[in-house]
Amino acid sequence: MNHLWHLLLLSTMSATTTHALSTSIVVVGLNAALQKRFILPPNTNLEPGNVHRAHKSETGVGGKGQDVGVAMACLMSKEKQRRDDKVLLAQFLGMGPEGDAVSGALRKRRGLSDALTIRNAAPLRTCTTIIGKDCATELVETSGEVTADELEQLQNKIESLAIDGGKASGVCIMGSMPPGCGDDTYAKLAEKMIGKNTLVLIDSVIGLDSLLKVLKTSFQSDDRDGGAVLKLNAAELCKLAGAQKSEAEKVTVEELSDAANGFLTKYDSARSALDYLCVTDGKFPGYLVEIPKESTTDNKFRFLRLSSIDISKQAKDGVLYPIGAGDTVAAGTLAAWQYLHHEPKAGEDSFFGVVPKQVGSVLSSVKSKWLSNASSPTDEKRLKMATSFAFGLACGSASCLQQENSVFDVDDAIRYFSDMDSPIIQ
Q: How much is the pTM?
């Protein structure tokens, strides 16, 4: 009998180790939503002032953090045996039918854990997307207020998991916050789950200054193995730096350089807190911007330009579905970064993170090819990040072919990614 209890104890300890927070990506998506899609008849666009009848209407998951969770679930769907805690959504889901629908979709359809879900009293907002032939229009409701007690519940849950299982392997901070959350909410949550070895992707400018200060402190150790990137589009970067850029126009390297300089001037902690900027530019090439660690009068940035992906001829009936594509880029980037950062050695069959084995082998192959094709000596860390961002862009492009937010065919993403050219250093 004692031998049996000993085996049971070992089994329990093994399960606890496997399911530690240190093997999970925490996605902070505080502003969830129920997503409704109102699809117009073929070859029809939205015309203000006119009556429109839906060709088809659908309901699903909305919210930037939730989109990341859905996209990562698409990647994990390639696994034979899945762990539901590889991705943990830190979120508020309001009581009522809307919150029930989103909770059920995330848990039952996507297989995501609700370990960091708070069912708050305020009803969940609804976002409505009107999809026409050439464009999509988003209507977003105001979020209900989160109480101080509800926010404390979330903080306590995160703290408890971190005490039991260590700091998170990865953290993804997405979008806006609902009323009731202070400007320093992201910073306070980050303090509880980010350590010197955590990989962090930020896709938000809310409370950015206080968040960067926390990251600076977290990564000040000389032996740190983690890092952080800020993902944003070119127009957002220019706006942060006090410049203007139309999202319809292709960004130039000169504009990027000026905007990056302005960004570092505005955010004192950014140089120590961030390693890269992942800059998207719509249908145009994306850029990985390496942040110089030494402050000089004329900051020299290294830009890696990534291939653009043309999916215009892939769309069914000529219609693309861009809502959630940027969030899918974030999901694919962080998932690939986690894999390449902890890349399994030859002969190792399993990987604790989000990316399944067959996708991981493609990531490793492309990274190696790009490294060997480099025209000048290139840091492998930089190429790993460029590879990760390129994979994220491929995932985001693939998601534009599917009606549901951030859902994509992994095979489409792999095909687009494998066809991308090596980054061009500028």
A: 0.91
